[in-house]
Amino acid sequence: MKKIGLLFSIILLTTNILKAQKYQVSLLTCDPGTELYSIFGHSAVRVVDQKNGRDLVFNYGTFDFDTPNFYLKFAQGKLDYKLSISTYQSFIEHYTYSGRAVREQVLDLNPQQAAKAVEFLQINYQPDNRYYRYDFFYDNCATRIRDMLEVVLGDQLEWKDPIDADEKTFRNLIDEYVLPLPWGDLGIDLALGSVIDVSTSEREKQFLPDYMEAAFGRAEIVGDGPTRPLVKSQSTVLDLPPVNMEASIFNPYFLFWLIAIVFIVFTYIGFKKKRLFIGLDQGLFLVLSFLGLVVISLWFFTEHTATKYNWNLLWAFPLHGILVYGLSQKHPAEWVKKYLLFALIMADAAIVFWILGWQSFHPSVLPFILVIILRTNYLYYNLDRLKAYKRNMKVQ
Fold first, then answer.
1. Which of 21, 200, 252, 362 could form a disulfide with 204 if both were Cys (CB 3.0 to 4.6 A apart)?
2. Collapsing DSSP states into helix, strand and coil, what is residue 277?
3. Which domain does 369 fall in, by range?
4. Mean of the per-residue pLDDT values of the chain
């Protein structure tokens, strides 16, 4: 009878545990897309309510296009993202349409931990809590999931970082994804400052969904019975080949070197024929001035943390635009020559910053920097020909 009673107790306890096992919580990791906003992939949380038959996806990576002044807020770093909920079916349908694979890691949470995770997500989804100030590196769709799990598990979560991991900067990590989009890569390197040219910790790498997926695969749960892996099982729930991005000849590398060759050719012709071709320089410095204004705006007038200390300012300087006026004068003032020397020194300093690793510039801007050095040198030593050039233009 005692044995029967013990067996009945075990069966009853097991039944209660199975009833309590209400939720299955998973990490979903989506492959990169073809657009800049999707090139880094995506992360979301799947919650299967085993008792009520609901299958939902909690998604921290959504925003509202109807937000007033949407693009201005995005540029200023004041755009709020939000936690949204969709059905698992609609989530998979979206990525099927996008042609992007999806992988799932089922987390080995006990019933209490799973319930706590779901409670955390439900509280986050309340109207007063669902919006958050997005930060690409430190507060995004991936890091929010990691932070949730750290709250749920506390000291029971051990990440098990690899010992021999490659040392990478934030910019190195971005480059792994944006190289197939050279114009997007250029835009990112122009916008982001030297603050991202620092080595990242394994935790900091988790802003990228692929790296967080790998971190989840290594992590363990301790102090809750025998130590066990955080991930109980993993599978590919939407098996699709990586998206194909074809290279185009219309890219900044080709275009900017072509522009540099044009400047070199005209400089050579000008040297032979004693001409300056001032119009080329006015166009060049006008473009550089505009780029400099963008850099200044992102550095000083936005809430973006990654756009600070941007030394692209050394070659793309807002005041370069005054040369458009200075070089158009019949008799260029003495300050024009001094400013040309200043612009030359600034461009040389950009090369030094690059070589010393204080900031990594996009490789395609090298021809621009070389053109600045070439033309400021040429104009500085030949500006006295401008008067003769103007007279020749009148005669023609």
1. 200
2. coil
3. 252-395
4. 90
